[in-house]
Amino acid sequence: MAQSIRVLLDHPKNSKGDNPDVIALDGSQAARAYAFKTVRSPHTQSLLDHIVKGVDQIERCPAPEGIVAFNLTPRLLGAGLWPEAGFFADWRQPAVHTIEKLTGMISDVLKDNGKEAIEGVFAGKKAAGSILCVAFIPTVARNPITGNAVFMPLKVATLVNLVADRPLSAEMLAEIAAANHTMQTTLG
């Protein structure tokens, strides 16, 4: 997606929800699908429902593989990522805390539903057994160059594995890494 790869985008307002939001193309062929879901509910059942919906969208699309991706920003807004004592000494502190929170949210789906139930969602499907989690969080941290406290938009992406025998392809991993690099270096 980030390296001048052609994509098909589902219309943001006129979509019926049948397709993944993004389908990356190799030439004119569908190659990888990304079913993005913004999750607001604090309940693990909501996460599971979105996983099932994303896996179904990927299964119906022409791409041979795909991944469910969650924007979990709404669930993190009250997660203590705004520093209590003025600012964080290092921007990596809230980043690590965010990754821990994202990983915990997805791990709770596995814990609450059991390994067999989660494996059943992915069994025989094209979707990878990992969830791509992204979050955009405002925070204040010490600038590593000036030492001054500065407001910064924290942009976090992490993969959380749910089903070990459903790995991502090297192409999808590279595409996600390139998209994350672009998110970190281009988005303000």
Features:
188 residues, alpha/beta, six-stranded mixed β-sheet, 5 helices, 29% strand, globular
* Strand adjacency order, main sheet: 1-2-3-4-5-6
Global Rg: 17 Å
Mean pLDDT: 86
SS field, number of helical segments: 5
Instruction: Supply the number of structural domains.
Output: 1
CA-CA gap between termini = 18 Å
Helix amount, in percent?
25-40%
Shape verdict: globular
Work out the number of β strands: 6
SSE string: EEEHEHHHEEH
The profile of the biggest β sheet is: 6 strands, mixed
Spans of at least 5 consecutive residues with low confidence = none
Summarize this entry quickly:
With 188 residues, this protein is an alpha/beta fold.
Q: Can you put this structure into words, describing what you see?
A:
With 188 residues, the chain is of the alpha/beta class. It has one domain. 36% of the residues lie in helices and 29% in strands. It has five helices and six strands, in the order E-E-E-H-E-H-H-H-E-E-H. Strands 1-2-3-4-5-6 form a six-stranded mixed beta sheet, sandwiched between helices. Helix 1 crosses helix 3 (92-113) and helix 3 (92-113) packs across helix 4 (115-122). The two termini are 18 Å apart. The mean pLDDT is 86.
Write the layout of secondary structure elements.
Blueprint: E1 7-9, E2 22-26, E3 29-38, H1 44-60, E4 65-71, H2 73-76, H3 92-113, H4 115-122, E5 127-142, E6 149-161, H5 170-186
Parallel strand pairs: 3-4, 4-5
Antiparallel strand pairs: 1-2, 2-3, 5-6
